[in-house]
């Protein structure tokens, strides 16, 4: 069996998670489900990045200890992923004792390999991003190039990692592994950044204490990114006695790290350099997607344009949410989301196109054949074209999935759904019924059912509640719901049970719904999450 390991970034423990983080997590969950369909042994990791000055400050504001503060946030995050049916195999926390011990070992290994030295750091520091910036980056206004907040000069004794030493090895690695960083545009960004020259990286702090202490010099805590990035390995126990998970998923598996573009450099430069330093193979693919922009702006609590998953799931169901955010996945460019887009995609793709197709077809199977539809050969050009389109769709779907273009993969399913709907208009089953052309009618219904079965199998990772309902009404076997060897006409007969109600109830008043969603956005904001 082949192994597959997929990870989200571990989200920073600083507040409530919005649909930007939900996009990454749902992406990983759906992708793991897809790989499972293909017979992989999968491991899906998410978690929480719990150290750093920002956490220390927030906890103090709330009058609780940092540990109490991150405990609350970790529970909240777990609850949200459960609510969205994102089923991680492991939830890693950087305050876990086994993580802490392994990070301390990592630091010592880097030190033994001559990659760490003690020096003095002075620079422009953003507390929010926990990152130092150069004078050019902060400009005359002295603001953080990443979050826009004021930065200040910080000077402190610090350990440094010899990142400069890894510029050449990194470029060589990227060159010899063309699929390492995806999409291509992100790869080019990384290459040009490295070519500007890499400076050694400050990897400890002594100005605050909420972090992992360096054993040999405990007034220093490990820089939060060094601490955080290694979660992908500490959660596999790579420096513990039992290395079976590490062997299975890291050394012998396909590994994919999924991140948003703002943390590309940490994952494409620091992370592989850290691995090279301790002689762990850089055995992963990095997929960095774009941002969700709400009403044309990056989502941010201070801008008041944050939308939370619960608002949308409550109104239109979990499937609509998972479908929407992946159908609109900001693959390389950013995606602008609005409540009206959400509603129209829901009404168009799920209610009108797919939901309606399934309802109509099941009703016809019931009405014309009491649900019992045997396989019927045909030379009807419309039906043959539907079959051809379905087979092409399956192959295109896999091609796009290989490139992480889940949005395009979903578009291909949509096209097949449209083609299937069109067959009903082209073949006019009710006329065939009236004219008593039973053989022809049976072929039409059989072909429609086959198309619906194929669409449902492809939708399994996204419409996680609806696909099983359709299978139950189609009375399919596990074998017929299998993505491997999925093909047209490989089911001999159908025993269909018609649906009691619509799969996706229509939103009849989009204007009112839009207003209510916007009001909810503001309401959530006023809670001060
Ligand atoms: Zn910042």
Give structural attributes.
binds zinc ion, seven-stranded parallel β-sheet, disordered C terminus, elongated, 529 residues, Rossmann fold, alpha/beta, Isoleucyl-tRNA Synthetase, Domain 1, 20 helices, 18 strands, four-stranded antiparallel β-sheet, 2 domains
Give the SSE layout:
Blueprint: E1 3-7, E2 11-12, H1 19-37, E3 41-49, H2 53-62, H3 66-83, E4 90-93, H4 97-112, E5 116-126, E6 131-133, H5 135-138, E7 152-161, H6 167-176, E8 181-182, H7 184-195, E9 201-202, E10 204-205, E11 221-222, H8 224-229, H9 231-234, H10 244-251, E12 253-260, H11 264-277, E13 285-289, E14 292-294, E15 297-298, H12 309-316, H13 318-327, E16 335-337, H14 339-369, E17 372-374, H15 381-402, H16 406-427, H17 429-434, H18 438-459, H19 466-474, E18 493-495, H20 510-526
Parallel strand pairs: 1-3, 1-12, 2-3, 3-4, 8-13, 12-13, 14-16
Antiparallel strand pairs: 5-6, 5-7, 7-9, 10-11, 14-15, 17-18
Helix pairs in contact: 2-3, 6-7, 7-11, 12-13, 14-16, 14-18, 14-20, 15-16, 15-18, 16-18, 18-19
The structure holds zinc ion (ZN).
Zinc ion is lined by residues 126, 128-129, 144, 146-147, 149.
């Amino acid at each position: 069996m082949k192994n597959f390991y997929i990870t989200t970034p571990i989200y920073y423990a600083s507040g409530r998670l919005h649909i930007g983080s939900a996009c990454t997590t749902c992406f990983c969950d759906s992708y793991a489900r897809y790989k499972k369909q293909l017979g992989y042994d999968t491991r899906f990791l998410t978690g929480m990045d719990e150290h750093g000055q920002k956490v220390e400050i927030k906890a103090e504001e709330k009058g609780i200890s940092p540990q109490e503060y991150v405990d609350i946030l970790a529970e909240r995050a777990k609850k949200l992923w459960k609510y969205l049916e994102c089923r991680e195999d492991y939830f890693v926390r950087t305050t876990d004792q086994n993580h802490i011990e392994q990070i301390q070992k990592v630091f010592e290994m880097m030190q033994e390999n001559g990659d760490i030295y003690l020096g003095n750091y002075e620079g422009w520091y953003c507390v929010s991003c926990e990152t130092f910036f150069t004078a050019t980056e902060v400009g005359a206004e002295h603001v953080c190039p990443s979050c826009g907040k004021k930065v200040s000069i910080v000077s402190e004794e610090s350990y440094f990692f010899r990142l400069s030493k890894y510029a050449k090895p990194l470029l060589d690695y990227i060159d010899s592994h063309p699929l390492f960083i995806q999409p291509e545009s992100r790869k080019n960004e990384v290459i040009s950044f490295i070519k500007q020259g890499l400076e050694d990286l400050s990897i400890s702090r002594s100005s605050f204490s909420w972090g992992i202490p360096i054993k040999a010099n405990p007034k220093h805590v490990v820089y939060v990114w060094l601490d955080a990035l290694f979660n992908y390995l500490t959660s596999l126990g790579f420096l513990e006695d039992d290395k079976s998970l590490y062997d299975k998923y890291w050394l012998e598996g396909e590994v994919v790290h999924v991140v948003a573009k703002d943390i590309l450099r940490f994952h494409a430069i620091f992370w592989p350099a850290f691995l090279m330093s301790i002689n762990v193979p850089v055995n992963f693919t990095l997929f960095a997607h774009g941002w969700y922009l709400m009403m044309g702006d990056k989502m941010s609590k201070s801008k008041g344009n944050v939308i939370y998953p619960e608002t949308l799931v409550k109104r239109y169901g979990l499937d609509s949410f998972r479908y929407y955010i992946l159908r609109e996945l900001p693959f390389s460019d950013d995606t602008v989301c609005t409540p009206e887009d959400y509603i129209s995609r829901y009404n168009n793709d799920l209610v009108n196109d797919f939901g309606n197709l399934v309802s109509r077809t099941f009703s016809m199977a019931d009405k014309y054949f009491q649900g019992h539809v045997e396989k019927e050969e045909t030379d009807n050009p419309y039906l043959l074209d539907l079959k051809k389109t379905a087979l092409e769709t399956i192959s295109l779907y896999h091609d796009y999935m290989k490139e992480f273009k889940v949005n395009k993969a979903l578009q291909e399913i949509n096209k097949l759904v449209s083609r299937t709907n069109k067959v009903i208009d082209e073949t006019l089953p009710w006329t065939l019924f009236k004219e008593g052309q039973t053989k022809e009618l049976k072929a039409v219904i059989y072909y429609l059912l086959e198309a619906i079965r194929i669409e449902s199998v492809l939708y399994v990772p996204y419409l996680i509640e609806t696909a099983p309902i359709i299978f139950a009404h189609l009375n399919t076997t596990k074998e017929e719901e299998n993505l491997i060897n999925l093909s047209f006409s490989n089911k001999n007969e159908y025993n269909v049970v018609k649906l009691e109600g619509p799969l996706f109830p229509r939103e009849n008043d989009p204007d009112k719904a839009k207003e209510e969603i916007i009001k909810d956005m503001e309401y959530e904001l006023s809670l001060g999450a």
